[in-house]
Amino acid sequence: MKMSMLFPLVLLILGSYKLAAATVRPEFIVHNEQWLIDYLDDVSATYPHITHLYSIGKSVNGNDLWVLAIGESPTEHILLRPEVKYVGNIHGNEVVSRELLIQLIHYLVDGYGQNKTITRLLNTTRIHFLVSMNPDGFAVATQPDCMGIRGRANARHYDLNRNFPDYFVTNLVELQPESRAVINWLKSLQFILSGTLHGGVMVVNYPYDNLPGGRISRAYSRSPDDDVFIHLAKTYSYAHSTMHYGHPCPRDDDFFPDGIVNGAAWYLVSGSMQDYNYIFAGCMDLTLEVSCCKYPADDQIESHWNDNKDSLFRLLTQVHLGVKGIVLTPDKEPIYNASVDVVGRSHVQWTTSLGEFWRILLPGTYTLEVTAYGYKSVSYSLDLTAKTGKSTEDSDVKRTDISVWPDNAQNIALLEITLMESTGEAVASKDRGLSSSVAGQSLNVCLIICCFLWSSTRMLLLAK
Fold this sequence. Notes:
about 475 residues
C-alpha cells in the first residue's frame, strides 16, 4: 500500500477510536477533577451538534466552574424552549451528586437519535449541567466519609448553600466567587426548573427553606406554588427505588412521608440556593438528597445511579407542564419585563427580552394577569383540565418546539395576548399571525396553554 493512502486510513482509524472512546460509559467510580474536565471537553468535542461547554466563573482557587449544555440547539436559546439545569457538588464532600450527573450526561448524549424519549427531550429542552460547583472543597474531601464535613465548604470555609441573598432575613455572610458565578448565570438565562444534588440522606426538599422574621423554630413554610413543588418532589421520589418509602437511611431518625419534605419544616436554612432560585430568579429549584453516604466507596456508585436514573430524567420532563407564551405590543413586538401573575399565587414571573414567560402549573382553572408599564393589563382564564384545541398531531404547533409531557397529554389551546397602550383597549385574540425568528426557527404562536389529560401513572415511562 502506498504511503499516501496509508496516512488518511490512519486518521480514519484514530478518528473512529476517539468517537468510540467518548461514547463508552464512564466507570462507576469517583472521578478526580482533572478527569472531569477532560471528560466534559471530550464530550463537547465529540458531540458538537448537541453539546456546548462553557465556564460561568472561577472558584476561590481559580478552578473553572464548567457547565455542559445539552440540546438540539446547545449554543443558542430557542424562542419558548425552556432552560433547565442540574447542579452538583455544592458541598464538596457530597460526591455522589457529581457522579450521577456524569452518568446522566453520558446517558443523554449516547441515547440522542437512538432513544426516542431522550431525543424528544433534547429536541424540546436545553439542559445545563454544572457538575461541580465546589471543586476546591472536593479537592480536600476524603474517601470514604459518610457523615464528615471535610471538604463541605469552599476554600475560604464558607458553606455555599448558606451564601445567597435571603428574602426572609438579611444574609450578612460574604458572597463567595462560586455563589456570585451562579447568581450571574441565573441573570444571563431564564431557567425554569432546576435540581441541586446533595448527599447524606435521601429525600427531596422543596421551598421555602426559611421563615419570616428570623424565627428559629422550624415550621412549614409554604410557597405560593406549594402544590407544584409537592408534585415535582413526588415525581422524583416515586421514580426512585426507595426514597418514597420515607425512611431509606437506617441510621436516620427522620421519617419523610412520600420521601419529600418542606425545607423549613425539616430545619431552617438562611441563604439557600434553592430559595434564591425561586424567589429572585423565577426558577423552581429542588434540593435532591440522593445518598445516605456523602462520600461512599467506589463500589456503591453504580447502585446510586440505578436508584436515581429514572428520577433525574423524569424531573426534567416536568418543565413542559403548565403554560408558556409571549407578551406582545400591538405591533407584534415582544415586551420585556412584563409581569405575568397567576391570580391567587403571589409569585410574579417577568418576561424575558423576547417577551417569553413560563409557569409550571398542575391541572386546574387559573386566571392570568399580564401587566406592563404604559400598557393596559390583560386577564385571561385558563382551564388546564379541559380537552381543548387541536391535537398536536394536527396543529401548527407540532412544527415548533412545543412538547407536552407525559405522552397522554396531547392537547393544547392557542391564544395570542396583545397589550394595548394605556390609552387604548386591552386585547386578547386568537390571531396566530405572529412570525418571529429566533436562532433560525420561525414560530407562529404567542401563548401556548398546555392542557393535560391526567392518568393514574402521571409520568412518562422511560425507555430503557
